[in-house]
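dumping the sequnces here before i forget
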Amino acid sequence: MIKLQQVSMTFDTNRILEKVDWMIPEGSVFGLVGPNGSGKSTLLRIISGVIKPTGGRAFVDEQSVYNNPNIKKTISFVSDDWYYLPNSSLKDMKAFYQSFYPDFSETIYSSLLQVFPIKEHAKINTFSKGMKRQASLILSLSIDPKIVLLDEAFDGLDPVMRLNLKRHIADLIIDKHLTVIVSSHNLRELEDICDNIALIDNKQIVLSDTIDSYRTQYHKFQLGFNETVDPSRFDFLKPLHIDGNGKIFTIILRGSSAEVNRGLAKLNPLIIDQLPLNLEELFVYEMEGRGYGKSI
Amino acid sequence: MENPFSARLNTRYLAFLLKSNKHTMLMIGTLLFAVFPLLYFLISSSYSLGTNRFDIFINTLYLFTLIGIFTSIILPLTLNSYLHSKKALDVYYALPIKRVNLFLTQLIGYVLIILIPSLIVFIISLIVGVSTSAFTAIPGNQNWSLYFGLFILFFSVMVASLVSLSYFVSNNTGTLLNSFLFTGIIHIFPFVIYITLAIISSTQLSSSFYLEPILMKYISPIISIYMYINTYISDGVRGISLNSAVLSILFMILYWFIITVLVNTVSSLIFQSKQFFKAGTSFTNRWFNAIVTTVSTISLLLMFLSIFVSTSPDISQSIALYAVPIIIVYIFYIVFNAIASRSFKRILITTGRYSIIAVISVGLFISALSTNVFGLSNYTPNASSVSYVVVEVYDFSNLYSTKKKLMFKSKDDIKMISSLQNNLSSTSDTYPWNKDPNNQVDSTVNIKYVLKTGETYDISRSINSNKLKLFEALYKNESFLKSHFPILSKRSSSFLVLADIYNQEVNLTSIPSFDSKTFTDSLKDDLLNLNTELISDNSSTFKFTLNYQNLQDQNYVENSSVIIDSRFSKTLSYLSTLNLDQAFLSSTSSGQYVSSESTQFLYLLKNDHTNMPYYVPQSLQTSYVLQPYGPEANSSSYDYYELTKEDVSQLTPYLSGNTISENGSDILLITDASGYTLNSLLINNTGISILKSIVADRKKVTTTSFFPK
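..and the predicted 3d for all of it:
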């Protein structure tokens, strides 16, 4: 289990995280979303022990992560821009990782080489961005981790490779009860793989729940009226988003189904049609509700 | 943060580091092999024989060390460049290894990457070279396993210290460019300090001062190992035993080992607390940046101040001269800061900082001028810590020149030399004959203190001849006397020719009753008992010149002489027992000296044409007329009267040897037939009165071409 306790991070005068409390149960697959510069990467670096928080602590299995090799060897962190030794090949980097991870799995390594067809002896600096990403994933997953932290992991991968990666991670989750945190802007990708989503904003985790729970709490309706309606009539429902003018509106509401239905009934619409709501919409409107992007 | 001393080596990572850098190691090894021994063999094979081989051996060893130094500085900077990249730190800092262990493993790895090829090449070359006699430069009588064992130890510690310094700089800088810049500064910095001290000493003090890099070997590992090769290996190759220096070498090795440990302790703490977010930014450690740039700028400014202001030691008159170095270094400072921070944005703040640095520097500089470089120029080691002192004097007038290096071991002698050195800076004693400002000639004094620890402290001063009088103290010292008068040394001469004022000669050893030991003992006693006004005493009357030969080695005989005047009472007393009058009559010339019949006696008048006196500095060894310097003297004419042997016989009580004439004087010049000066003696006032009456009706000769040779 990963536990963040009052974690703060400040760099010079710039506060990136402020007293973040977050708990990630073992075996869960978390999608971490948030606007640019919200601290997603910093949060992953703290969990992986790359940086020490300026306040609070990060724990894995009740042990502090920072400077703790016993815990760190169970964590694999794949950053958005992977570093490899100058002029090295995948085989060279494998040797590098093997010198730190005695449990480096040749079996996983070989199987991943089948999934991602990378030439082991070729120089990494000749690889495309997507191939470099594949190489980093091969090595990171070959250390046989219990926790995998993927920072924008799907960036640069073509659709086939994305699918392969998702499948492989899914297999690892099932086989090894892996805990995964994936940060991404692509909520459609996360929807496929994650069972939990956390939203980071304004230096804190503002939402963290299962996808199913989100789906029961957020609702999208199309409403039709027989006469022109002023949008201010919907204010008592505290909508996340309203679209439309006159007689037809699309509205996104937060709350239990019963509460939402009771509220809508008070409006006495001609038509009430519930529409499917995907995660991307959910978080876009949630962020809009929090003021993100309004100044642009 | 972990205790740096609790660090453990990650052997798997160390093995990876060595394996992944095998090509680098091979390259270093090949480069080293190319200069030592390959270059040595190539060059030395072109010489058939001779001492050149020693120089080739030492020079190729220098090159070998230079490559070691270069790689020790550069390699850690490039291997550590990951510290300047956030994406690299994402990988390294996520690894399951404690930072303290990562630091230690990398440090050891970098050192081994350089040391393994270096030592393999060096040791194999040495074993093969010595066993096959290919190293013909190495004498067989030396304990080479010890000396080169010490070199290997010294080289290893030097590599470790240089790698540590580069690692330290990497830890404190945010970019590769900055790490190179600051490493360069750190290694150039000791030389700037050295140049500054040397310039300040030589330009601002009353006498020039050469600071032997005793200080330097403690602030720069590069200088330290070069001094080691230059002093010890070089001596060893030339067959000089190094046994007495082993402790000193071990001390230096231990010193740099301790410094290396200290640097790495601090470096490890900084490495552990290094902030991820500062990677790639200009300065990761503002303290490091501030300290290094401030200290190096102060040093640089001091150096330029010493260069520019040296032309005008009067501070009040040279304000404008201060501005030039301040502006030059300001430009350096601004440009350096712009390169380091890749921005000119902070130019106002930088200028403000520089103003403070300039004020501190000028303050330090003025303080250094007013305190004789904080007393450093007057520093003498404590006599109780000195093992022995070696003194050399090169005196243009030959009054005090030592013929070889003199070694003083007794505590009293060491104190005497220390006192002498101190007085060189403080005294204003002058010789009367040297008052003429155009006649300021420098003499050189080298003093080397060898401390009981084996350390040496060398001082070389170029002093004005005015201060040579101080060296009269040396005449009270037996070592100096033996050096100055080889007749007193154990190698007795069979050629002891005594010449009187008419240049009549007698070889003392041909007199049956002559006892060499009694004679030299008397002479030594007389020399030691001469009063301290040795040179300027003009009351003594000339008696004899003793010419003798001493054997320097099997092939070289040195001719020497000593003037015996009335103060040599014991010597004269002994000579009086030898019935010299009879001996002079029966003596035959050795053939080396002119016969008395060809001797010419000239009454050389004080030069009235230019009103410039002749100076007659006469050492106990020789005497000669010193012509005043300057163009006027060269164009002077000289007035003299020719005298007969009978004229001279009336003057003998009034002629002085070992004399200097304060205002110049009439002198008696004794020459051979070709005009070569045999002796020049000062005539006192009574003698001059007698001479005036003798020459009253003789014709004065005036010449512009004549001058005593």
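Chain A has a mean pLDDT of 88.
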